[in-house]
């Protein structure tokens, strides 16, 4: 299930891409097979990184290694202290991460530091009003260790990136069919996986993710701009805006 559009990110062969807060590796895996690039996945959770590695082991690259090298690297690390030198990455993805970090401004500063001048980034956070409904229905949804600590307003988040020096390229909404699923889960109990409606809706989303038949593609295209669960923004780091002098960490 991809949230960031890799074509809109203009990922190319030979690029180094950081998936910051990679989770189970959905974007790390997607980038690795999308282009012959170096896909680096980093997450705070060791178990998540292990699952990401298992995904690569279960789906090896069977194409001949011609042209640019295709490789992946995985690491456990903190978004507030990234273990990379300045201006390290051509592309960066940070999907559904910033809403979990109390000092998200510190994470934005680190994102600026490790992206090369001329680099591009794709950021996603929960879309404001679908997220507000989840918070209204269920306190358990967000008030848990490691849960969501804020709801972003698009103009404010855009400004936070632009203050650092990033150039805004555009935004879109994604996963419109997922919003009702989370409203339902909040209504019956966030951890109630056995509810019949929850299980039925989950199967529908699994069909969308794995097979994406035409009827669901049409429904998703209609739902995304209306009630997308995720808000995706794209930014450039200008060529004339390097980070401070790089010092390897």
Topology:
Layout: E1 16-20, H1 26-34, E2 38-43, H2 46-58, E3 71-76, E4 89-95, H3 104-114, E5 115-126, H4 128-137, H5 154-164, E6 167-174, H6 178-188, H7 196-210, H8 214-227, E7 230-236
Parallel strand pairs: 1-2, 1-4, 2-3, 4-5
Antiparallel strand pairs: 5-7, 6-7
Helix pairs in contact: 4-6, 6-7
Q: Could you explain the architecture of this structure?
A:
The chain has a domain at 16-126 and 145-174 and 229-236: 3-Layer(aba) Sandwich (Rossmann fold). It has 249 residues and is an alpha/beta fold. It is built from eight helices and seven strands, in the order βαβαββαβααβαααβ. The longest helix has 15 residues, at 196-210. The protein has helices at 26-34, 46-58, 104-114, 128-137, 154-164, 178-188, 196-210, 214-227, and strands at residues 16-20, 38-43, 71-76, 89-95, 115-126, 167-174, 230-236. 38% of the residues lie in helices and 20% in strands.
Total helical elements: 8
Arrangement of strands in the largest sheet: 3-2-1-4-5-7-6
CATH architecture of one domain: 3-Layer(aba) Sandwich
The count of strands amounts to: 7
* Beta content: 15-25%
Spatial shape: globular
CATH class of one domain: Alpha Beta
- Rg, please? 18 Å
Distance between the termini: 32 Å
Helix percentage: 25-40%
Largest sheet: 7 strands, mixed
> Which class of secondary structure composition applies to the elements?
alpha/beta
**Uncertain residue segments:** none
- What CATH calls the topology of one domain is Rossmann fold
Mean pLDDT: 94
């Amino acid at each position: 299930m991809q949230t960031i559009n890799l074509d809109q990110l203009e990922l190319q062969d030979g690029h180094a891409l950081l998936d910051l807060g990679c989770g189970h590796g959905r974007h790390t895996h997607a980038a690795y097979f999308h282009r012959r690039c170096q896909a680096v996945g980093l997450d705070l959770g060791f178990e998540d990184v292990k699952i990401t590695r298992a995904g690569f082991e279960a789906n090896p690259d069977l194409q001949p290694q011609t042209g640019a090298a295709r490789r992946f690297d995985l690491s456990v690390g903190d978004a507030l202290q990234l273990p990379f030198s300045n201006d390290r990455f051509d592309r960066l993805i940070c999907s559904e991460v910033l809403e979990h970090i109390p000092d998200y401004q510190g994470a934005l500063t680190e994102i600026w530091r490790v992206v090369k001048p001329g680099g591009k980034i794709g950021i996603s956070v929960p879309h404001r009003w679908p997220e507000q409904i989840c918070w209204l229905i269920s306190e358990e949804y967000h008030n848990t260790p490691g849960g969501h600590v804020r709801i972003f307003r698009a103009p404010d988040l855009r400004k936070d990136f632009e203050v650092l020096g990033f150039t805004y390229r555009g935004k879109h909404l994604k996963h419109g069919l997922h919003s009702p699923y989370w409203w339902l889960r909040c209504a019956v109990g966030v951890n109630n996986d056995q509810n019949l409606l929850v299980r039925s809706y989950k199967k529908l989303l699994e069909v969308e993710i794995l097979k994406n038949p035409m009827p669901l593609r049409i429904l998703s295209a209609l739902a995304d701009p209306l009630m997308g669960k995720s808000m995706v923004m794209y930014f450039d780091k200008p060529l004339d805006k390097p980070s401070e002098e790089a010092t390897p960490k």
